[in-house]
Design a protein that fits this description.
It contains 28 helices and 27 strands. It is an alpha+beta fold. Strands 2-10-9-6 form a four-stranded mixed β-sheet, with no helix packed on it. It is globular.
């Protein structure tokens, strides 16, 4: 039975419940500024496309009309301006879309306020409906309407006997399902309006997916004409889609504003086609900007940044929407710069109308950098020394000191072990131990990142003697190895591409199986209990599972290497990966470091570098990437640059302009201590080490090689299960179970009351109460007591309990406090 006073426990429970509900340290109650409501004045107009060419009855063209105000700021007036067709016998306007009526030439007259612009219109082959191509014309409609999504007919086994390939990755099978299956009822050339495709799509017949198609829409018209033409597959050797272009690529917008997106398909013969109404759209930040199915973006009240993803037939592109805070300070205050990082962040903040927080105090900085860099609290002695040091270079000196500490190797080996699947359940004790030892040695020796990754990727040998080969023991199939290497070291997620084209990226099955080819000859032979010989037996052909077609072995977006048959093909993969010209390897390393120290990657998720998730600060990520390369992959030098930046050293306390900023690093992002770091912190503050089965006394959690050692504490606080090649297996989110464990766990009570622990030693020293309270705060919080701690101490020490029990209660309250549990 715990003996803490009920009133104390209730007070701390309130703090802990608050901790569980905290998701970010912002003043959520502060209202966002009201956006300006004045109508913007149009000084000039521009239109895309500059000439409108309609190639047939099913060819329409979305307009994009951009205005500039007197300050030169661009904004969208596509749906605000007045558009007139000079010859209404040749074309008409359907909203902001031009539709051809007859062959000929005319023009659009576009007026907005006092500005006018004219755009030529050419209509050709109106009388002849263009031949419909199933893959180029019909599949995009099915994708846009969601017919082939994973929740509808694209799911495994289909729905109600009708199965389509997910996202249309296999047009041939989709054609057979629509035209040759279903007893001819799904598509009907003699009477298209009676086909199930149109009857159910328009809701005229019961349909589980509801109404998806409007009877008088362009999509309906195209499907109708395709059936009238006899449901052809389409002409042979038609131009293939190579890319899509999105306009505008980026746009600064006001709150509560609109912006039309123009999507253009580009084909192998150089031809272009408007696909705005056939593309699919999504936003990665709907609180900042939403987008509808017609490609119209709408910003909300909150400032921020959103990437609008545009997907058409497996090709993806993104438009970046930036919403600055209204009423930005003018003039904008200068932000002192310690290095180039600060200059690049400041430029973005100024663009967003955000003023950064002040520099954090010395005590908070010291605790933060210790925990972020070596996963360890500073001792009371280290805190006192730093706080009394008047050297203006003391922050730089502590950065250098921490990067050379032994704990650095422990902590960063732990972080890489989480990513690289160092798991006793799959590797066995000896394999996991050897792999962890090898990782720690790379960290301790400051070995360049590209060198140890190259050794890992090309590893062969005995799992009991050579640590890095165990990476492949956790990945028994070539497909598993391809996915893990791509995600862990390139930031490319190929999982979706194993079965179908990635819905939000450029990767398809050929990219996936091209990567698989490098690992296709991996072999494993048993050498006894928990030991295997892992090696590559030489190049083997890789084939697509369904068609049996041989796929060239090549890296993503790369060419097939020469002389694949002459040795281990992984060597050529490693050469490509670590090349200075590789667009992903150094970029992912830079993003990982930034995410670790600043709490959020410049691209998030950190290991998903797809084109549709652009960085929040591209110049900064490009700069850090080049630094990784310029330092010859010495990641400590890049860490040093980040840690010495003013941006890293900003306070976590927000101001009136940045309280809701989560993307631009205008204040430090508060993080809960990771599981292993938190357990070590409890042990260090109580001065009672944790005991682990089979481990030497005093072993710290950040130094454990075995992630399966029994520990309710580590499990409750989210240690990584090491099942996926990412840091996603670790959870730093606060939960109710964590709060209750900290309050009631007998194990924590035992550390606090241990006769050889910190409290007992302080009481035995007969230290004055004021100094005792200060010593505990320095140990737990990394700072002298503040008003809050002094009030808690006064209440506890004024009670009827003994001095020792009051000190124990006080330490217990500190261990449950926000300032102890979070890095801030």
């Amino acid at each position: 039975m715990l003996r803490w006073a009920a009133s104390t426990r209730a007070a701390v429970l309130t703090v802990m419940l608050s901790m569980v509900l905290i998701t970010s340290v912002t003043d959520a109650g502060e209202p966002a500024e009201k956006p300006p409501v004045n109508r913007r004045v149009v000084r000039s107009l521009s239109v895309l496309p500059t000439t409108i060419q309609l190639g047939g009855a099913n060819r329409i063209q979305q307009l994009l009309v951009t205005a500039r105000d007197p300050s030169g700021q661009a904004f969208d007036v596509t749906h605000r301006c007045d558009v007139t067709v000079a010859n209404t016998d040749l074309a008409l306007m359907r909203g902001a879309t031009v539709v051809g009526l007859a062959d000929g030439r005319t023009e659009l007259i576009i007026r907005c306020d006092a500005a006018t612009i004219r755009v030529p219109v050419i209509v050709e082959q109106y009388e002849t409906f263009p031949p419909v191509h199933f893959a180029n014309d019909v599949i995009p409609i099915l994708s846009k309407l969601g017919c082939n999504s994973g929740g509808c007919h694209g799911k495994q086994g289909g729905k109600n006997g009708f199965h389509l390939s997910v996202f249309g990755f296999d047009p041939k099978s989709d054609y057979a399902a629509l035209v040759k299956e279903g007893r001819g009822r799904r598509t009907f050339a003699a009477d298209p309006d009676s086909s199930l495709l149109l009857l159910k799509g328009t809701g005229r017949r019961p349909h589980g997916g509801g109404r998806r198609l409007v009877a008088d829409s362009t999509d309906y018209e195209l499907l109708h004409n395709w059936m009238q033409q006899g449901m052809p597959w389409g002409q042979q050797n038609v131009p293939t889609l190579t890319a899509i272009r999105v306009d505008p690529t980026d746009r600064v917008m006001l709150p509560n504003a609109k912006q039309q997106i123009l999507a253009t398909a580009i084909y192998s013969d150089g031809s272009q086609r408007d696909v705005t109404h056939a593309a699919a759209y999504s936003s990665n930040a709907t609180t900042v900007a939403e987008v509808d199915e017609s490609g119209r973006v709408a910003t909300g009240r909150l400032p921020g940044e959103a990437a609008i993803t545009v997907n058409y037939m497996g090709q993806v592109a993104a438009a970046l929407v930036l919403v600055p805070r209204p009423n930005a300070p003018n003039p904008y205050p200068n932000m002192p710069a310690n290095n180039r990082i600060d200059t690049l962040v400041s430029a973005k903040l100024q663009k967003m109308g955000i003023v950064p927080s002040a520099l954090t105090d010395d005590a908070t900085f010291l605790r933060r950098i210790y925990l972020d860099t070596i996963g360890t609290l500073p001792t009371a002695k280290e805190v006192r020394k730093f706080l009394t040091d008047n050297n203006p270079e003391k922050r730089k000196r502590v950065v250098d000191q921490l990067l050379d500490r032994d704990e650095f190797a422990d902590y960063w080996a732990l972080r890489w072990a989480d990513v690289l699947l160092v798991n006793r359940e799959t590797l066995g004790e000896r394999g996991a131990l050897e792999f962890h030892r090898w990782l720690r040695k790379q960290m301790a020796d400051d070995r360049p990142y590209d060198q140890w990754v190259r050794e890992l990727v090309t590893a062969s040998g005995s799992s009991g003697r050579y640590g890095p080969v165990n990476f492949y023991r956790a990945l028994p199939k070539a497909e598993d190895a391809a996915k893990a290497v791509s995600q862990a070291f390139l930031g490319i997620r190929l999982d979706c591409a194993q079965c179908h084209h990635h819905p939000f990226d450029q990767w398809g099955q050929r990219d996936f199986y091209g990567m698989v080819g490098f690992f296709n000859g991996m072999q494993r032979k048993s050498l006894g209990k928990d030991r295997e010989l892992v090696f590559h037996s030489g190049y083997r052909e890789t084939k697509l599972p369904l068609s049996g077609e041989v796929v060239p072995t090549r890296p993503p977006q790369g060419e097939q290497p020469q002389n694949l048959n002459s040795g281990d093909p992984r060597v050529q993969l490693a050469n490509w990966m670590t090349s200075r010209d590789n667009p992903w390897f150094a970029r992912l390393a830079a993003n990982r470091l930034w995410a670790h120290f600043l709490g959020r990657g410049l691209i998030d998720p950190v290991d998903d570098l797809r084109s549709t998730s652009p960085p929040t600060n591209e110049p900064l990520l490009a700069f850090l990437t080049q630094k990784v390369i310029a330092t010859e992959y010495d990641l400590k030098q890049v860490m040093r640059l980040i840690l010495n930046s003013r941006v890293y050293q900003l306070s976590s306390e927000p101001n009136a302009t940045n309280f809701d900023d989560e993307q631009n690093y205008s204040h430090y992002t508060v993080k809960r201590l990771p599981a292993e770091v938190l357990l070590d912190a409890v042990c260090q503050v109580t001065d009672v080490p944790e005991t682990y089965p089979g481990m030497p006394r005093g072993t710290r959690a950040i130094a454990l090689w075995d992630n399966r050692l029994p520990s309710y504490f580590l499990d409750t606080f989210g240690r990584s299960e090491r099942q996926s090649p990412c840091e996603c297996g670790k959870s730093n989110e606060p939960t109710m179970a964590q709060a209750l464990h900290l309050m009631n766990a007998p194990e924590i009570e035992a550390k606090i009351v241990n006769p050889r622990g910190r409290i007992a030693a302080l009481i035995d020293s007969n230290m004055p109460r004021k100094q005792l309270i200060e010593a505990l705060c320095l140990s737990a919080l990394g700072r002298p007591p503040g008003e809050k701690e002094r009030k808690i101490a006064a209440r506890l020490f004024a009670g009827e309990t003994s001095e020792q029990q009051a000190a124990e209660d006080f330490l217990w309250a500190l261990l449950n406090s926000y300032d102890f549990l979070f890095i801030h």
